Each structure stands twice: as C-alpha cells, then as structure tokens.
Amino acid sequence: MPTVFVYGTLTDRETASAVLDTFEYRGKATLRGLSRADGRYPTLAPGETTDGRLLSTPDIAVLDRYEGVDRGLYVRCAVPAVGGEAGPVETDTVDCYVGDPGLLDAPAQWPGDDLFAERVRRYVRDNDVRVVRG
Questions:
Q1: Is 133 helix (H, G, I), strand (E, B) or coil?
Q2: Which residues lie closer than 8 Å to 108 by C-beta, 6 or more apart?
Q3: pLDDT value at position 60?
Q4: What is the structure's pLDDT at 82?
Q5: Alpha-helical regions (H) of the chain
C-alpha cells in the first residue's frame, strides 16, 4: 500500500475516515527540510521541520481528488523516507502533498520561476528533504 506523510486535516482519524475507505496510520513522523505554513489550508515551505503521521492507503486517486491535485491546488511529490526512533520505514519514499501558497494565501516562498510542481520537486531532490519515522 502506498504511504503518505500527512500534516494537516488528514492527521485526524475522523477526517481520514470520511475521505478514505481503507487506510492505516503507520506512526508519527517528521518531515525534515520543509516547514508547515498555514493559509486557508496548511501547506509546506522550505524550512526546518514539520511533524505529522504516516498514512498508508490504496486510495491515492481519492487523496489526489481531496487535495485538489487536478486543479493545481496541491502537488504530490515523492520524499525519501528513513527509519528513526520508531523503527524502519517499509518503503524508500513516501508521498507528500504540498499546496501552492499563492492559491492558499500562505506565507511561503519556493525558489525558481518555473511551474510550482517543478519547483517543489526540484527543491526536494536537490536539498536534504526527508521523512523520518519517529
């Protein structure tokens, strides 16, 4: 089952249950290299750390719709995952949703002038961004 790092509304079991038919929390995790930025909805920006949870579900297409990926509201990107205090992670990468700060009225800046999704993916690839289980 695909695993996603969640840091906003989907950390709440009741919300996740309303959105997803099948899911399982895999424990707490910290996203290193990106900080939470709150606007209309939470998003991420280059920065320190963000605490959240690992959520596994086969319903990635449902999550994409919930996060507005088709409308450009959020982009889903793969982030390297490493074990931590709580043990190993079952996968080398986890997905993470990053919202466009311009559309969310969030105080966040992403370097570059190209499309938002490309700026996010490049930043994650070129910097020490990772999810640590813990």
A1: strand
A2: 37, 39, 43, 44, 45, 101
A3: 96
A4: 85
A5: 13-19, 60-67, 101-104, 116-126
| Chain position carrying tokens 């996060």 | 67
Task: Name the pTM for this structure.
Answer: 0.92
Ranges of the chain with pLDDT below 50: none
Domains of the chain: 3-133 (3.10.490.10)
How many angstroms separate the first and last alpha carbons of the chain? 20
> Residue 83: what pLDDT?
73
Under the phi-then-psi rule, with left for phi > 0, alpha for psi from -120 to 50, and beta for the rest, what region is 7?
alpha
Beta carbons of 66 and 74 less than 8 angstroms apart:
no
pLDDT at residue 84, as a whole number: 63
* DSSP label of 129: -
d(CA 23, CA 28): 15
Beta strand ranges found along the chain (DSSP E): 3-6, 24-38, 42-56, 74-82, 93-99, 130-133
Length of the chain: 134
